[in-house]
Amino acid sequence: MVADDDALLRAGVALVLSTADGIEVVGQAADGLQAVARCRDLSPDVVLMDVRMPGIDGIEATRRIVAAGLPTRVLVLTVFHHDDYVWGALRAGADGFLLKRTSPERLIDAVQALAAGEVLLDPAVTRGLVARVVDRAPGRSAAEPEDPRLGQLTARERQVLRLAAEGRSNAEIAGLLVLAESTVKTHMKRVLAKLDARDRAQAVAISYRGGLMSF
Q1: Which of 42, 12, 7 is nearest to 27 (CA)?
Q2: Taking a C-beta distance cutoff of 8 angstroms, is the pair 78, 51 a contact?
């Protein structure tokens, strides 16, 4: 489902998605309240949610969808890349964040990734978000990891985590590392288990805080 108050953009996004194999656009919404109501009625696997909409904004709409226990995963799609918007959306329970300037191919990949259970952040906003989550202490050396959990990662798991930190989906990571997507999923599951992280966003934050990644 596509939720955006810009009718032309909404129709364009719906058209792009409808050309992809395995994706069906089941509905559209022009404001936040309508988005929540149609998610209740249609139970889409994924909703593309604009941030600024009349009535209630996309962040509040996301919060209500999550609070209602709906199966729909929320991909926030917006022109705004400010940390406050990203932080607010993810705190509300969004599963992904993409800027509207993303390519059609990237948009399709993102929808498929969320439908498969992944968490996805646009590379353009990942660094600012992680910096806020991590709240690194001043003077910490990025060359000296402090978290012993990072030492448990294999070289391949570190590669997978670094690419995830760039906002890559499992399919993209598989292509870059010349691996099967199922293998990437296995590596990511092991990374989450070793870092005791609930999802890849938290795993990325741990990698920055521990010094495996640098700002």
Answers
A1: 42
A2: yes
Inter-residue contact 2 to 17 (CB < 8 Å):
yes
Compute the half-sphere exposure of residue 79: CA atoms within 13 Å on the CB side of its CA. Answer: 6
If residue 60 lies in a helix (H) or strand (E), which one and from where to where? helix 58-67
**Residue-level pLDDT at 138:** 45
Q: Which two tokens stand for residue 214?
A: 């640098």
Please give the mean pLDDT across all residues of the chain.
83
Tell me if 153 sits within 8 A of 194, measured CB to CB: yes
Q: Which two tokens stand for residue 199?
A: 């999802």
Per the structure block, which two tokens stand in for 58?
């996309």
Span 116-136, pLDDT tens digits: 888 777 766 665 555 555 554
- DSSP code per residue over 172-193: HHHHHHT--HHHHHHHHHHHHH
Structure tokens at 168: 């890559």
Give me the pLDDT at residue 169, please.
Answer: 80
Question: What is the C-alpha separation between 126 and 169, in angstroms, rounded?
Answer: 13
- Report the C-alpha gap between 174 and 94 in whole angstroms: 24
Record the pTM. Answer: 0.69
Place of tokens 């509040």: 60
Cβ atoms 77, 98 nearer than 8 A: yes
Q: How many CB atoms lie within 10 A of CB 116?
A: 14
pLDDT at 146: 57
